Amino acid sequence: KNEKLGDDDLFTLLPGPDYPGGGQIISAEADIREAYRTGRGSLKVRARWSIEDLARGQWQLVVHELPPGTSTQKVLEEIEELTNPKVKAGKKALSQEQVQLKQTVLAVLDAVRDESSKDAAVRLVFEPKTRTVEQQELINTLLAHTSLESNAPINLTMVGIDGRPTQKSLRQMLVEWIAFRQ
Fold first, then answer.
1. pLDDT tens, the chain, 182 aa long
2. Per DSSP, which regions of the chain are E strands?
3. Please, which of 27, 51, 82, 118 could form a disulfide with 43 given CB 3.0 to 4.6 Å?
């Protein structure tokens, strides 16, 4: 059909971007629409995880997908920095904030390991300190202090029909691409 789609129709057809490493967009739908409308924005993206039950009431948190720009190595380095903080340059001891953050993380996290393989591109396993640690408490601590939740920028810049790179809305990009292909 030769119908014209309105912006709301277009956004319904294309609800949000996806990322090669996975991750889950947790920004409001209005933020996605605004980024598509203006050609610029930022979306909050969170890792995807599951809880695996183990024997005797134990459990572990397993991360399967990471936000864009985050790697398993980066998350492991962040955990290492939190649990073994270094004295800042020009200081003689750890700051109170560093000590408090270390205690917070060590109170909920016993171990973390990377079990990624060819079968599972991302598999980060977090073991809670004890069975008494609530699942949501561990998740909230990790999201707050690591890059398991981060912002992903959107910049819709393209070389247009006029041959000049400019930032365009998603609608403008599609209209120019269709005109170019015809």
1. 445 656 666 666 676 778 888 889 999 888 888 988 999 999 999 999 999 998 888 899 999 999 998 999 999 999 999 888 888 787 778 888 888 888 888 889 999 999 999 988 899 999 998 777 889 999 999 999 999 999 999 999 999 888 899 999 988 998 999 988 88
2. 24-25, 40-46, 48-53, 59-65, 109-114, 124-128, 149-155, 157-159, 165-167
3. 27
